[in-house]
Amino acid sequence: MIYLKENNAPIDAVIFDLGNVLLDYDPRRFMIELGIDPAHIDRLMEIFPNSPEWQELDQGIISDDEFLAAALRKEPSLRREIKLYHKHWYDHFHAIPKNVAAFYQIKEAGAKTYILSNFQQTCFRVIRERNVFPDDFDGRVISFECRLRKPQPEIYDHIISKYQLDPARSVFIDDMPVNTEAARAAGLLTVTLPIGGYILDYLRIEE
Q1: CA distance 147 to 133
Q2: Residues 37-72 pLDDT 10s
Q3: 52-65 burial string, b = 16+ CB within 10 Å, else e?
Q4: Are 91 and 29 in contact (CB under 8 A)?
Q5: Alpha helix (H) ranges present in 89-152?
């Protein structure tokens, strides 16, 4: 059995974000690792994680090519950097071993496990090709597949309805407070995991 340490609530289902929960995700560091001049990173951050077009790409509303064209129109002087990051950014995702191990412990303890994450189609395909664990969940809701995106309230209602979850016995783990706040508003229990945090510091497994 799984319990939330904060209040000893029994947990039937654990819902995982991917970035900074099960996969390392640090766009600024990725850019530096690609050799991009740090002086350009603030401008690039306004294109990649933060632009309306990036959100539309996450939701499957526009294609990779349409996103790239929009990014190049916004910052034509950063053409080389934009094309470099767009081509290689998903190569920098790596599993977080301690939390992937915790996922399997939670699953083996009998809880249902789900993914709820914002991802664009190409990146999610690459992650599945390079990692086994994404296919070992009981279900998933990914932004590009459902055309919704965290923290939109509808995406939390969607996963609850799709898998017939009891929100009072389901915990959502995410690294961003805005996402866990929206999950709480939908009735889910939540854990806001700090960068580098360990999932089982917040959940207790009992035989």
Answers
A1: 23
A2: 999 999 999 998 889 999 999 999 999 999 999 999
A3: ebbbbbbbbebeee
A4: no
A5: 97-108, 121-130, 143-146
Strand stretches in the chain, DSSP E: 2-4, 9-11, 13-16, 112-117, 139-142, 170-174, 189-192, 203-205
For residue 92, give both structure tokens. 């920098």
Please provide residue 75's backbone torsions phi and psi, each rounded to the nearest 5 degrees. Answer: -135, 70
Q: For 105-144, how does the pLDDT look when each residue is reduced to its tens digit (9 = 90+)?
A: 999 999 999 999 999 999 999 999 999 999 999 999 999 9
Strand partners, 171: 14, 189
Gap between the Cα atoms of 150 and 142, Å rounded: 10
* Cα–Cα distance, 54 to 60 (Å, whole number): 10
